[in-house]
Write a structure and sequence with these properties.
135 residues; Metal Binding Protein, Guanine Nucleotide Exchange Factor, Chain A; mainly beta; 11 strands; three-stranded antiparallel β-sheet; 1 helix
Length: 135
């Protein structure tokens, strides 16, 4: 982890759980799978991938582990007070984690480069030509 100040801080709605990130994310993506729709209560998730060395968690979190379409586990980490899903770890990312981009509360945050599980997206949602659609 860098000795410099965090590049960004993502926080839950009540501010108790924070994910301090160092450096730029490895990627930024959206996902329209049904699990992401349920986890966010929206039509898709919007997340930034970081290496674990780029991340420092502050505050208490609760975790819930679920399966994925690929048969691997995904663990959602959320605030036990307000319920905000702040970050996720996954079997497929042993050295990384993804942070919910909305938790940065930064309207200038990078746009997603990909939309995963595009076949599950809501009909009204048009990601535009700049975003690669996968699956």
């Amino acid at each position: 982890m860098s000795d410099t100040a965090p590049t960004r801080t993502a926080a839950c709605a009540c501010g108790q759980l924070r994910a301090h990130t160092y450096g730029e994310p490895r990627s930024v993506y959206a996902c329209a799978c049904l699990d992401c729709q349920r986890a966010t209560g929206s039509a898709f998730s919007y997340r930034a991938r970081y290496e674990l060395a780029q991340l420092r968690i502050e505050g208490g979190a609760r975790a819930w582990r679920r399966g994925s379409d690929a048969g691997r586990w995904v663990e959602q980490h959320f605030c036990p007070h307000c319920g905000t899903l702040v970050y996720m770890t996954a079997e497929s990312l042993p050295d990384g984690a993804v942070v919910s981009a909305g938790c940065f509360a930064d309207p200038e945050f990078a746009a997603p480069g990909r939309l995963y599980r595009a076949s599950r997206k809501h009909g009204w949602f048009d990601p535009g030509a700049a975003i690669e659609t996968v699956g």
